[in-house]
Amino acid sequence: MSANLQRIQIKGLYQTKKSIDARIRDNTLILVGENGSGKTTFLRILFNLLAGRWRSLSLFRFESAILTIDGKEIEISHSDISAWMDKINKRSLRKLSPSLRQRILIEISESTEALRTQESIERIARSYGIPVGYLLEQLNFFDDEDNTFTEKVNQTLQDIIKQIDAQVIYLPTYRRIEQELASVVDWLDPDDLRRQKMRPSKPKRDQAYIELVEFGMQDVEVSIEEECNRLKEFQSKNLDILTLRHFGDIVSSAYRREDIQQQLDNLSDSEIKAVLDRVNESIVDKPKRDEWFKEIQDARLKDNPSERDQIICHYFLKILDFQKSLQAEELKISTFCKICSEYILDKEFVYDSTSFKFYIRPKFEYHAGEPVQLSDLSSGEKQIVSLFSHLYLSGQSRYFVLIDEPELSLSVPWQKRFLVDIRKGDFCAGLVAVTHSPFIYNNELKPYAHSLGEFASL
After folding, report:
1. How far, in Å, CA of 288 to CA of 281, rounded?
2. What's the number of domains the chain is made of?
């Protein structure tokens, strides 16, 4: 971990004297508290800080928030945000009629508190029949006349991004998802949410943060398909290059300068066959591969292999080197399948490296061998699969993971290993979770578990 998040301070929380001063070790914190203790508020403020979501951050009531990263303090003041927010750009709300735009701007300008709580924004939006999300988007919070505040917050965001050097992932609870979508879409009923499975569009891979409100199975299927296609293309492209180079080696007699026997002696017949099986039919068909397999076996036993044997073995060894590089490329999807299979014991997640296909097969006879679809998984299984598919298959290399109540929809055995598996991943730059389940931290993460009360002061 290149950056060390050491401390999170939130001063004047709820516009009172209450403050939170959380010390963090190894970029890891498990915050424990009962429902209503404020742990979700703490996590959301942290998410908005790390992600630079100043608009969302402004909806929380606090005086200032400070991150200490590698000894450097990065501070954002709520008063700075509020002061600038009073200078609303009157070019906003361009899609509304002039009269309606004027009425909204007058109402906002008459109340300095109008944009300081989510309730106020919702009230204004409902009053004029416009979506809350549109109102938030159109209110340009950071177009200050002298650009002083714009430059300040931009520098703050750049400092955080540079220090963290990872994509921030936030996973709210499903309860939280219903609440937030219902607040943005006035007519949305939580029951409709469950029935219609409404969700936001798939997050972009290259953005600085992602809020995984619901990473649906269709998105998982797309990620897996894209990864399989990428690997297939990687093989096709590199095998073409390898074949062209092999012709050059034949012309230059490079194959004569290799100790073929020594390199082949370290390989079993099954390893040789597995390598040959992955050669595309358009390059070498199956009968020819079978012929090569026999000739390679024979060449290992000869003191003086023929020139033909040397050429075939030379090409095979080049393919073997390529296969090693391909296996390194396949490591992420292979690990994804392995870890999902360890959680979901009655199903095996399979990546077929020969055909570049993914599938799920049942392990027990009562399934009658029918293929399992991602959509058939339980809610807990989907939570496991969706998160790990993003961590392993989204194309990012580092993540700072924030999770609200990870225990939801997870069985007790899963709770005991879930955060451990995330933190052990090479991709994990940091992990902060809030929970009220002791099973989440009754493991090697116990030293990082703290009650919210340990950090609170009045």
Report:
1. 10
2. 2
